[in-house]
Amino acid sequence: MKTLRTVLIMFFLVGIFGCSYVKEYIEIAENGTISGEYFDTLNRYTREKTLYSEFETSISVVATWKNREFMDAYLSEYSRLYLLTAEDKKQRKDILSDTSSDLREFLFYAYIPDRESNDFSKPDSIWRVFSSGEGGERLEPLDIREIDSTPLVTKFFPYVKPYGKFYSVKFSRSPFSDKNDTVAEDGPELVFTGVLGKIELEWSAGKNK
To answer: 84-139: per-residue pLDDT in tens?
Structure first.
């Protein structure tokens, strides 16, 4: 009986954190609010991983690489929904380009049962976050900040839930970076490590999740 209960718990956890995000993208796309084209791009540049301890979640992270192709898709969808004029769209694109040209940014959602341990943006956080890839060098974050989970955020990033927190982390662009900032054979990596465990997310070609 105990074994059966354990198996059921495992299936339940996998169901929640394994494939629910993709299903949600499809369901939201079907209601006509956000386009399927945008969610296709979001999925292409999103990675997720969950660590378990004794069949309970230690930490779950979903991260989106905010690269050029993703930002183009985001801007196109935002412009469609808010009926931006060509001039408004150009101004918004210029602003986004100015703020990201020398930086590599990831957006990530983290769920930790102990909410006090979800402190990535604090100077004395129990977590270390860094990026690596391309040339094999390790890049320390320039900035980690928490993002409010507004209706706009949760519509464009449906994996963001009220029981976790949403963050932006920025790094200096690696001198070895692909100029087109797309998934390459040796793409960027985002690493979260601390006393609760270690999560590595990769955007190398062939590694979609």
So the answer is: 888 888 888 777 765 556 789 999 999 999 999 999 999 999 999 999 766 678 89
Kindly give, in sequence order, each residue whose CB lies less than 8 Å from that of residue 124, ignoring residues fewer than 6 positions away.
none
Measure Cα distances from 170 to 24, 173, 203 in Å.
27, 9, 16
E-strand ranges in 24-122 read: 46-53, 56-65, 103-111
Q: Is position 207 within any domain?
A: no
Could you tell me if residue 198 is inside a domain?
A: yes
Mean residue pLDDT across the chain: 81
Ordered alpha helix ranges (H), 45-85 = 68-82
The token pair at 207 is: 């590694």
pTM (two decimals)? 0.80
- List Cβ<8 Å contacts ≥24 apart for 25-30: 25/158, 28/155, 28/158
- Number of domains present in the structure of the chain: 1
Look at residue 185 and tell me if it is in a domain: yes
The reported pLDDT for the residue numbered 103 is 87
Q: How far apart are CA 142 and CA 99, in angstroms?
A: 13
Of 191, 164, 146, 193, residue with least CA distance to 47: 191
Query: Containing domain of residue 103, as a range?
Result: 2-202
